[in-house]
Amino acid sequence: LNYAINEILNKKEQTHTSKQNRLLILISVIALISLVLFFIYKKRKANRQQALIEELSEKEEKVLVLEQKVNETFDEILQMAKANHPQFWQRFQEVYSHFPEKLLKLNPDLKSSELAFLAYLFLGFNTKEIADYTFKTSGTIKNYRSSIRKKLGLSPEENLSSWLQNYINIDNSNK
To answer: What does pTM read for this prediction?
Structure first.
């Protein structure tokens, strides 16, 4: 009888140990799979971050190239303005195509010479510089300012250059 009971207890213990071993193996496999999945996730995340960094670097390079082109174009237009080059107004319109469009919306009667004068102001030239570059007197330039101020409906107290910068840049950014 003792033998039979010991046999039954041994079998139960072996079954119990076997179940524990299977449970331990199952937990180990789950832990191993979780660990592998975690490393796969981390690797993919690192790859995505690396791809984003590379994409950002490429975009930064493109921005630098574009900034350089803009600076070169701006310098070209400044040199043309200073030299009173006959192609200045045409080149200015190519680069700042929104400029005449915006101003002509305010007053379609603006002449191309007045628009070219406004282009000088937009580029930051003062009255004396514009007079020097265009071979006109300061008085003529002041008359231009006054005439244009009237055509645009600006008061004499408003700074035409500041108003022009704000109008063109703010209005253009809303586009």
So the answer is: 0.63
